[in-house]
Amino acid sequence: MSRHNGYEHWDIEYHEKRYLELFPKDKLVYLTSESDNIIETFEEDTYYIIGGLVDHNQYKGLCHSIAIEQSIRHCQLPLNKYVNMKTRKVLTIDHVFEIVLKVCEGMSWQEAILKVLPMRKGAHLCNSLKNSSSKEDIINQNTNSTC
Fold it and tell me: Which top-level enzyme class is recorded in the Swiss-Prot or TrEMBL entry (predicted)?
């Protein structure tokens, strides 16, 4: 955890037991970029697991595989719906946590994603969102189009 600057200020509880021993399986959701399920809202009585290992090279897809193996619901953030990126859409734990936090505080997905992702990711609005003239247009286009 010490590699995650500022983690001691996160509003989280630390446990030594495994999450399957602490929480009901039906209240767990694994956030993983390999999931085909897209999260739109967060449920207040649900525990979200942010993968603790980087899923690349020999570990690619590990978090998704663990979720399937343990029969835990899984989903990914709606990155494709709101932004195009010049790099892979795999984020660090810090980025996922910060996006989730901002969305839970009331910020829109689009605003949270653009605010959190670093410049090197090259994130920019989807073409369908760039042409919108109002917030209502953006909401309507989000439900009717993809990037």
Answer: transferase
Tokens describing residue 119:
């410049």
Whether residue 74 contacts residue 30, with contact meaning beta carbons closer than 8 Å, is answered with yes
Question: Nearest 5 degrees, angle CA 102-CA 41-CA 17?
Answer: 80
Confirm whether 55 is a catalytic residue.
yes
For the question of whether the overall pTM of this predicted structure is more than 0.85, the answer is no
Give Cβ neighbours of residue 6 (< 8 Å, ≥ 6 apart).
Answer: none
The residues facing 83 across adjacent strands are: 125
Residue pair 32/76 in contact (Cβ under 8 Å)? The answer is yes
Strands 83-84 and 124-125: antiparallel
**Tokens 């697991």 found at:** 49
Rg (CA), the chain: 16
Task: Name the active-site residue from 45, 55, 94, 137.
Answer: 55
